[in-house]
Amino acid sequence: MVRAALSSGRRIGQGPRPTAPYIPAISVFAGTMLSTLPLVSTSGWYPDLGFLVLIAWRLLRSDPWPAWWAAPLGFANDLVTGAPLGMSVVLWSATMVLLDLVDRRTMWRDYWIEWGLAALLLLLGECFEYWIASLTGPAGAFATILPPLLIAIFVFPIAAWLVGRIDRWRLGR
Known about the structure:
The protein is mostly helical and 173 residues long. The protein is globular, with a radius of gyration of 18 Å. Helix content is 64%, strand content 0%.
């Protein structure tokens, strides 16, 4: 027998953290709070990191939270980022419902499908934010959504890895 099979490396009594059900929401809010960093820019080149972390959590695990958590987290995102109230509530709730539908329709997903699905959701989110911005005032060029979109798409693997590490810590593995 292999020596690694004899020792599990797991201590007795080690299990999920007592706050395990709330850690996904706390990490999404921490991603939202990253938008308060003092970055000075004349154009909004940084993506909505709270939305990125929400997508990463939802693609990794659908069981730690109910879909209705997207509404209060989106409201908190609107308050922190200064977006019109209700925009992230609608966007994040629609994302959760859409991902629930995708979970019901697909048998399996690999890494590339999840990355493509995240890219599609991030594109829809940026287009929705641009549409809301055009309704509330004079909108800039449509090309202004490209930098945050490309940054979010290329940062998604890092966010998914980080969420996976937080999930392993949360579950005590």
